[in-house]
Amino acid sequence: MPLDEYKRKRDFTKTPEPAGTVKARKGRERFFCVQKHLASHLHYDLRLEHNGVLLSWAVPKGPSLDPKTKRLAMKVEDHPVAYGEFEGVIPEGYGAGIVMLWDKGTWTPEVDDVDAALKKGDLKFTLNGYKLKGSWVLVRTGGRYAGARGGGDRSWLLIKHRDDWAGDVDIVEFAPLSVKSNGDFEDILAEDTPAVWQSNRPAKGGDAGAMLATIIERAAALKSARTKDTPSGRTENTTVTKSTKKAVGRVTASKAVKRGTQSPRRPQRKK
Ligand code: MN
Question: Rounded to two decimals, what is the model's pTM?
Fold first, then answer.
């Protein structure tokens, strides 16, 4: 830890010196995003900005707003901050497929020392995104689930804390589209010039390539259908029922959340 020695040498009840920038960072908002990634398998990449990089976890089933539903989150390599706004196509290599910016906003650590929390395997934080809000925790499962699937200490669980932003709604089903383009995977592919991210890592197998070929076919079909139809493209057809609204509460009942038009920097008022 960068400030360990600084802190060890000081008693902050007796010195007027600041306890250091690590503590001062508590409460500071940092960028976060969730990128829905259709590669060999669909998953959701949760990324939290920290010390100039995006800490990253791959969440196969995506986040759940239900505190009882713990979602496996595999720790993966840090990503560059510039990757956080990316939406588009990774044509080949590691992660080949389509990336959708599914949610973004800011995150705030609920601890003084993020590095210590990561080392301990228990990071509590608050999200303020379009779709994900409120208090969450990432907990490393350590040896408990290691072994069977070779997860080792890369296995974490992503869990929603019980608060105003928790609920029964399946957020990945309820709000499946991009907060950047409002499109689905096919729409991202069907753009005239989709953004392309060049991976510098080799592919692990043919799965991703075959999947990509299928998706490209679907995108082509969608695009030709759209040319004959209206230029405005797809429309939302999800109906928000009363029971859904009750389950969703204030979190996601509004169309604005689904459509990504509600600013993540303007949090809804809590009671
Ligand atoms: Mn990924």
Answer: 0.68
